TrEMBL record:
Keywords carried by this UniProt record: Transferase
Keyword Transferase tagged: yes
Gene3D superfamilies: P-loop containing nucleotide triphosphate hydrolases
Name this protein carries in UniProt: Sulfotransferase domain-containing protein
Organism annotation: Anopheles coluzzii
Length: 340
C-alpha cells in the first residue's frame, strides 16, 4: 500500500486526531469556528500541543502546556523546529503576535549594532531579523528554519512560539532575549487588521469571537504571556511592554542598553528616539511592510501604533467581551497586572 502524502492533506494522515513523538494534533470542532472557517480563510487551522516539556524551567505547579493554534503546515516542519540550532551570540525577540514586536526588533537591532542607522535603512528588517517559524503558519518558498539557520552570526531571531515549543537548544544555550507584551484589547484590534491584510476574510466581530475562543495563530494569548513571566532562572530574558515603550521610551532604551552592555551619548540616543518614533517607523519601508493582499494597496504592517487605540475601534459590547475573557482566563490578581 502506498504511504499517504501528508504534505497536501493533513487529514489523510491523521484524520480527526493525530500525534507524533513530540506533538499532538487536534482538529478545531468549535461550532462557531466550523461555521465560519470556509468564509474567513481559516480552513487549515489546527491545534497543536507539545508533548515533551519537562525541560522548560517554569514555576507553575503541575504545569501542562495547552494546545496552540497553527496550520496543517506544522507537521511538515516539526522536526526542523525541534532541531533548530541556537547560538550563544544569538539575540531573540519573543512575543505574542501584534504586541509591539516590529518596534522592539528595530530598537534591539540598532542598540546591538552601534546605532548603525544607515545599515538599518539599507536592509529589510525581515532579512536582518528573520522570523524563525513563519513556515508553520504560512506557505513559504523555502523553509524559514533554513533561512534562520543560514543567517550570518550574530543572528537576530524573531519568534512568537510559546515556551513549550521553543527549540530544546534554546533552554540549553539561553541566548539574550527580549519578551514584549501588550494590552489584550490592543492586540485584538491590531491582530484583526493584520490578519485582514494577509488572509482573513471575516468581520471584526467574527474575528474577536474567534480570538477569545483561542482560534487565532499562536493562541491561547494569556497562557503565552503568563508562561514567559513564570519562568525561573532565566536572567537571559528582559521583559518589556508596548505601553511602557509608548509612554517611557527613553527609560526602556536605557534598560535595553544596560541589558546588552551598550552605552551611547545623549545626542546618539536622541537620534535613536527619533528613528523609533511612530512617524519615522511608519514612513520607513524597511520595517513597515506593505500588505500582502493586492486589494488593500494602502495598508501597511504598522498601522496606528497607539497604546489605547482600541477605545476608538471597539464597541462597548466588544470591550466587555474581551475584558470578561481576561477575567476568566486570569483569575490570579497578580498575573492580571500583566494585561492592564
Amino acid at each position: 500500500m502506498n504511504k499517504p502524502d501528508c504534505s497536501n492533506s493533513w487529514q489523510l494522515c491523521f484524520g480527526r486526531f493525530g500525534s507524533s513523538m513530540s506533538f499532538e494534533y487536534t482538529e478545531i470542532t468549535d461550532p462557531l469556528f466550523v461555521e465560519n472557517k470556509g468564509q474567513t480563510g481559516e480552513d487549515d487551522y489546527i491545534m497543536v500541543r507539545a508533548k515533551l516539556y519537562s525541560h522548560v524551567p517554569i514555576k507553575i505547579p503541575n504545569w501542562t502546556p495547552q494546545a496552540h493554534c497553527y496550520t496543517t503546515l506544522f507537521k511538515q516542519y516539526e522536526q526542523e523546529l525541534l532541531e533548530a540550532e541556537v547560538y550563544p551570540d544569538d539575540v531573540w525577540v519573543i512575543s505574542y503576535p501584534k504586541s509591539g514586536t516590529t518596534w522592539t526588533q528595530e530598537m534591539v537591532w540598532l542598540i546591538c549594532n552601534d546605532l548603525n542607522f544607515e545599515a538599518a535603512r539599507a536592509e529589510s528588517l525581515q532579512i536582518r531579523f528573520p522570523f524563525l517559524e513563519v513556515s508553520l503558519i504560512h506557505p513559504t518558498d523555502t523553509s524559514s528554519f533554513e533561512r534562520a539557520k543560514n543567517t550570518p552570526r550574530p543572528r537576530f531571531i524573531k519568534t512568537h512560539l510559546p515556551v513549550s515549543m521553543l527549540p530544546k537548544r534554546y533552554w540549553e544555550v539561553k541566548p539574550k532575549t527580549i519578551h514584549i507584551r501588550r494590552n489584550p484589547k490592543s492586540v485584538a484590534v491590531s491582530y484583526f487588521f493584520h490578519s485582514q491584510g494577509i488572509h482573513y476574510r471575516g468581520s471584526m466581530d467574527t474575528f474577536l469571537r474567534s480570538f477569545v475562543r483561542e482560534h487565532q495563530f499562536y493562541s491561547p494569548y494569556h497562557a503565552h504571556v503568563i508562561e514567559y513571566h513564570e519562568l525561573q532562572d532565566c536572567d537571559n530574558i528582559l521583559y518589556l511592554s508596548f505601553e511602557e515603550m509608548k509612554h517611557y521610551l527613553p527609560s526602556v532604551v536605557r534598560k535595553v542598553c544596560e541589558f546588552f552592555g551598550k552605552t551611547y551619548s545623549k545626542p546618539e540616543l536622541e537620534l535613536l528616539y527619533q528613528h523609533l518614533s511612530f512617524k519615522s517607523m511608519r514612513d520607513n519601508p524597511t520595517v513597515n511592510y506593505k500588505s500582502r493582499d493586492p486589494t488593500k494597496k494602502g495598508e501597511q504592517f504598522i498601522r496606528k501604533g497607539e497604546a489605547e487605540g482600541w477605545k476608538k475601534e471597539l464597541t462597548p459590547e466588544q470591550i466587555q467581551l474581551l475584558d470578561e475573557w481576561t477575567k476568566e482566563k486570569v483569575p490570579n490578581q497578580e498575573q492580571r497586572k500583566l494585561f492592564e
